[in-house]
């Protein structure tokens, strides 16, 4: 693999984005109370440059970087690619890097770790010393963690987990968050800490390098420190925490250390979510007690503002859920031509292209997809043939509306795993993560005669002889056409 | 100076008047601690001049209610077990 030159920290990433015109520096004062959130929301809805807000009301010295990965251009920059790279190119690079050899992290000395430039311990610990934003008006609280990694370790197996689980500031020393029971951290808590009544050490890292953040929210089975190394082509630098044995990315902007309480919960939410709604109600959720805060000089807090498309939650999760499913299906020898989730589906619909070589292939795909670790995050799988361009919604929609037979093509899966965030689920189902899912099989049945039963697609590409197509294409401008107005 | 508070409820019936309630309230006073929570014993009244502090209400999904109250914070309640304090 050629040398990768990806930004190694949030700072390098901001610099690269400013240089390419994919971030703007905002020098005027911005209020942490709603204004910063409103800026980030509008940026997401317009697909604008990421805002680097350098002057935060009440918090001199701190800054915000909003919507870090809400465009494919910024995703390409994060991977050290040309910002103009296409989605299939970015996807191919992700697959190449995540199929390479794992790169183990290195632990460095505290003196070399930028995240230790300021250390707050004991009575000095107060989350209100950080510019924690009120992201959306009406949220249940100021959210410390919207674009970050919660770092924990399974005490027996020893595996390290970096996961992006939202965290709300309850008071200066307490946070609460939505950790789903089927997530890695959720399983570690129910498997080990909760039955024993033991506190689970955690560290929240904010202002990660973009690839560390990408690793933290990727549904990959590879441990995130190694995954981050594979994505960036070099070992990630870690440093030991002040108050527990966890190791955190040394170049992160802010680290919050503490313990997840096994037997005490405070309220969390509501919060604007990636589905484009506030769906999950306020509830008593996983509670984090804070023991230490460390941060870089002039620390930058990263903000993701989830809501209607498109924010990085939708963009990045669609991207990595789709590619991880592609890997899974290929590992089972299924002749998939690609997997794509449109971010505007708020990562709810998986579109799979496949060569329909045997009966039941769409069902096999859906069973694997819904039955995998990825499954709770989407409830629709649409399977189209290899002639349909999965990235072209016009083609996919046409296939869906014309080939999916209402009786034989739609298969509902009941009593599966869902999330508390599904807007379409009943309040009861949300509370218990009960899901239901659906397959839209848009393949021609294999037992239809290819010549006499399968309809012919009537398109320029499909029905005209090559020589006529070429003649028409070459003469297009001569006929007087000037390009269609969409 | 009078304090401003906010509470989240699923139903306005949770804010019964004329008796002591225990609520999770957050401060809306300007400053670094705005929006932080505490548990407290309180009394609320729909008569806005009954108590010195004001209480704003939000519903389950963050919708601002147009019902306003005055509030008296009687005392703070610490729910968190002492071993974690
Ligand atoms: C911005 C953002 C916020 C997220 N918030 C949560 C959350 O609050 N709870 C959760 O369980 N997953 C959340 N996720 C999804 C997880 O980050 C994702 O599932 C990740 O792979 C960690 O999952 P794992 O623990 O299963 O590996 C969020 C993702 C993003 C991009």
UniProtKB/TrEMBL annotation, chain A:
One GO BP: cinnamic acid catabolic process
Annotated ranges, domain 3-octaprenyl-4-hydroxybenzoate carboxy-lyase-like C-terminal: 322-442
InterPro entries in UniProt: Phenyl_P_COase_a (IPR014095), UbiD (IPR002830), UbiD-like_C (IPR049381), UbiD-like_N (IPR049383), UbiD_Rift_dom (IPR048304)
Protein name: Phenylphosphate carboxylase alpha subunit
Lineage: Bacteria, Pseudomonadati, Pseudomonadota, Betaproteobacteria, Rhodocyclales
Pfam families found in the cross-reference section: UbiD (PF01977), UbiD_C (PF20696), UbiD_N (PF20695)
Residues in 3-octaprenyl-4-hydroxybenzoate carboxy-lyase-like N-terminal domain copies: 14-92
Residue ranges of every copy of the 3-octaprenyl-4-hydroxybenzoate carboxy-lyase-like Rift-related domain listed in the record: 108-303
GO cellular component terms attached to this protein's record: cytoplasm
Superkingdom as given in the UniProt entry: Bacteria
PANTHER family cross-referenced by the UniProt entry: 3-OCTAPRENYL-4-HYDROXYBENZOATE CARBOXY-LYASE-RELATED, FERULIC ACID DECARBOXYLASE 1
Molecular function via GO: carboxy-lyase activity
From TrEMBL, chain B:
Record-linked InterPro entries: Phenyl_P_COase_g
Domain of life from the UniProt record: Bacteria
UniProt-recorded name of the protein: Phenylphosphate carboxylase, gamma subunit
